[in-house]
C-alpha cells in the first residue's frame, strides 16, 4: 500500500472518530430547560372580574358563623343532622343583578356588595321548609334577608329538599337491617350476607308532590371496580319522608321480575321452594366486568404537548386572558361551570355562559331503571368536580385551579386542581390555502385554542365540560360523556330496553340532555334574532330562455316574539340563527353572532307526563327570551324531588314577549340517545359521545380577525421557506430545542371524599 493510500485511510479514520465524539458529546449533554417568557400583557383590569368570583373558604366560614349567631335557632352540622334538625345545606355566591354589574364594569359605578346565598333546611319547625337567605356584605356579614318567596312564589316544601349524605347513610342502615331477614335467600342468590352489596339511588322519589319514596338497586361490590355493571336482581323501595328516621320503612322488594311486600316474604317463598333464583357467584376483582386495571404493562410514552417559552395565556384570580380573549370563570356547586363577561378584543360578546342542568332518563323492565330521571344539578355538578389527573384529564403542563365549596357541612371543602386551563394545538389548520396558479404561495394559521375544562363525576357517569376560545372570535362549548353505564338485572323481555352486556347485565337505554344559558350581548345589550336559510327558485335561464335553472336564494327573517324563537327539540330549525346588533359592519350588515347547535338528542319526555314541566327546558333545542332578573336559571335543585310541582318551570319563561332590540338570552339544549352495547364495557368512551354548540361571529367583523395573529404563516415560491425570518415554522427547531419543566406527578383527589 503506498503512502498516499495510507494517508487517505488515516484521514478517514480521524474524521470518523471526530464524528463519533461529536455524537457522543451531543447525546450526553442534557437539553437546556425551556425558559418561560411572560405572556403578552393585556389591558389592566383592576380586579373588576372579582365581582363574579366564587366564594372563598374564609367567606363561607364567616357566613356560617353569622348564621349560627343571628337566626335565633339551633343549627346542627348537616353532616350529622337528622331530618328533624335545622342545618345549613349549601352556599354559593349571590351573583349581583346584571344592570348593577354593568354600571360597575362599564360606567364607573359603585362595586356591587359581595353577598352569599345560603340554603337552609328547617326541619325543627311547626312547618318544616327550605329557606334561602342572601347574606352580606362579605367578608364581614351584618345582614340577611329571606329571598325564598321572591324567587319561588312561596316557601319551598321540605319534601323537595335534596337528599343529604347523612340521609343516604340512614337509608343504607335500614336496607342492611332488612336484608338480614333473608339470609338463606341472599346466600343462595348472591353468595352474600348483604354486607358486600351496595345500593344505588334512583330519582325522583314517588309519583306525586309530597312523596319521598325511593327505589334502590343492589349490586355486588368489588373494591376497585365499577359496581354499576353487577346487579344482583334485587331492588328495594324505601319510604323516608317522616322526620323521624325510626319510622322509615321498606315498602316493596323486587327480585327477578316479581314484587314482594317485605324481605320476610321473599325469604319465606325461597324456603318454600316456589321462588326462581338466579344463582350468582361472588365476583373476583380480576374477573369483574367493571375493572379498569391495565391488562398490559406500560408502553413507550405518547406525544407530549408543551410550551417552549411558557404559557401564552394568563390567569389572574378568576380572570383568563389569551390573544384578545378575556373571561371570568367560576363554579356553581350545584349547576357547575359558569363564565361571565366574555370579551374579545375588548368588546363583550357574552355576559354569561353557564351550564344549567343535566338530565339522564332511563328505560328498563326493572322498577329502579324505569323510574330514573336524574337531574344532576340536585346532586351537585360543581360539587362533584374532583381533582383532575395531570397528563390524562388535561395536558400535563396545563394550569390547574382549586375550587372551594360548602355543602352538607359547616366546614368549607376544597377540590384541588379541579379546573384546568390550557392552550391546545388541535393539529389542524384554522385556515390555509396552497396556491398553484397563477402565483405560487402558501398561507395558513394553526388552530390553537384556549380550553377551560372541568370534569364532574355524578355517581356512574363522568361529564367533561369544555369551553373553547378560538382565534377567529368563535366560542365553542362541548360536553363529552364517559364513565360507567348504569344497568339493570337482565330478565324477561329486558332487551326491549337495551342490550345484554354481561351474563346477567342489561345495559339500559337512556338519554342525556344538557341545558345551557347563553346571555349574548352582541355589540351592546340590545339585540334582535335573525334567521337565514336557503330555498330554490326556478327561473328562466337569462342567456338561454328556453331553459330553466334551479337557483338557490337566501330567505331572511327577523323574529319578533318569544313564541317564534322557541324551536322544538329535534324539529327542523333555520340553519343560520343569529343575535344581531342594530349597528352594521363596514359592509352594511348587522354585526351578529351565530348560534350553531351540534346535537343528537333523544326524544323529550311527553308533555302530558306529570313531571314534564320540571324539565320543560328540554322541549326546545333553542329558545330565546328577554333577559329578566327573576329568571336567572332554567331549573332548580328542588325540581328533582318534587318534579310534579316544580319550583322553576322553564316553559313559563316563554310568554310571547317582544324580542326586537331587547336584552336577549339564548337557552340551548344538546344531548344524545345512548343505547349501551358491548363496547361500553368496562367504560363508555368519549368518541362519538360529544355534543355542544358554537357561537360564531357573523358579519361582526369586517374580515376574519385571525389575520392579525402573530402565528400566521406565509411564504411564496420566491422565498426560502427554510429561513426563520421568512417562515416562523422554520424557527421551531431552535425555539423548541429545550426540555419542558414537568412538575412531579401528584394526586390528592381521594383525600377530601
From TrEMBL:
<dbReference type="InterPro" id="IPR015798">
    <property type="entry name" value="Cu_amine_oxidase_C"/>
</dbReference>
<dbReference type="GO" id="GO:0005886">
    <property type="term" value="C:plasma membrane"/>
</dbReference>
<feature type="modified residue" description="2',4',5'-topaquinone">
    <location>
        <position position="461"/>
    </location>
</feature>
<keyword id="KW-0560">Oxidoreductase</keyword>
<feature type="active site" description="Schiff-base intermediate with substrate; via topaquinone">
    <location>
        <position position="461"/>
    </location>
</feature>
<dbReference type="Pfam" id="PF02728">
    <property type="entry name" value="Cu_amine_oxidN3"/>
</dbReference>
<protein>
    <recommendedName>
        <fullName>Amine oxidase</fullName>
        <ecNumber>1.4.3.-</ecNumber>
    </recommendedName>
</protein>
<dbReference type="InterPro" id="IPR049947">
    <property type="entry name" value="Cu_Am_Ox_Cu-bd"/>
</dbReference>
<keyword id="KW-0479">Metal-binding</keyword>
<dbReference type="InterPro" id="IPR000269">
    <property type="entry name" value="Cu_amine_oxidase"/>
</dbReference>
<keyword id="KW-0186">Copper</keyword>
<keyword id="KW-0801">TPQ</keyword>
<dbReference type="Pfam" id="PF02727">
    <property type="entry name" value="Cu_amine_oxidN2"/>
</dbReference>
<dbReference type="Pfam" id="PF01179">
    <property type="entry name" value="Cu_amine_oxid"/>
</dbReference>
<dbReference type="InterPro" id="IPR049948">
    <property type="entry name" value="Cu_Am_ox_TPQ-bd"/>
</dbReference>
<comment type="similarity">
    <text>Belongs to the copper/topaquinone oxidase family.</text>
</comment>
<feature type="domain" description="Copper amine oxidase N2-terminal">
    <location>
        <begin position="72"/>
        <end position="143"/>
    </location>
</feature>
<dbReference type="InterPro" id="IPR015800">
    <property type="entry name" value="Cu_amine_oxidase_N2"/>
</dbReference>
<dbReference type="InterPro" id="IPR036460">
    <property type="entry name" value="Cu_amine_oxidase_C_sf"/>
</dbReference>
<dbReference type="GO" id="GO:0005507">
    <property type="term" value="F:copper ion binding"/>
</dbReference>
<dbReference type="InterPro" id="IPR016182">
    <property type="entry name" value="Cu_amine_oxidase_N-reg"/>
</dbReference>
<feature type="domain" description="Copper amine oxidase catalytic">
    <location>
        <begin position="305"/>
        <end position="706"/>
    </location>
</feature>
<dbReference type="GO" id="GO:0009308">
    <property type="term" value="P:amine metabolic process"/>
</dbReference>
<feature type="domain" description="Copper amine oxidase N3-terminal">
    <location>
        <begin position="161"/>
        <end position="258"/>
    </location>
</feature>
<dbReference type="GO" id="GO:0008131">
    <property type="term" value="F:primary methylamine oxidase activity"/>
</dbReference>
<dbReference type="GO" id="GO:0048038">
    <property type="term" value="F:quinone binding"/>
</dbReference>
<feature type="active site" description="Proton acceptor">
    <location>
        <position position="376"/>
    </location>
</feature>
<dbReference type="InterPro" id="IPR015802">
    <property type="entry name" value="Cu_amine_oxidase_N3"/>
</dbReference>
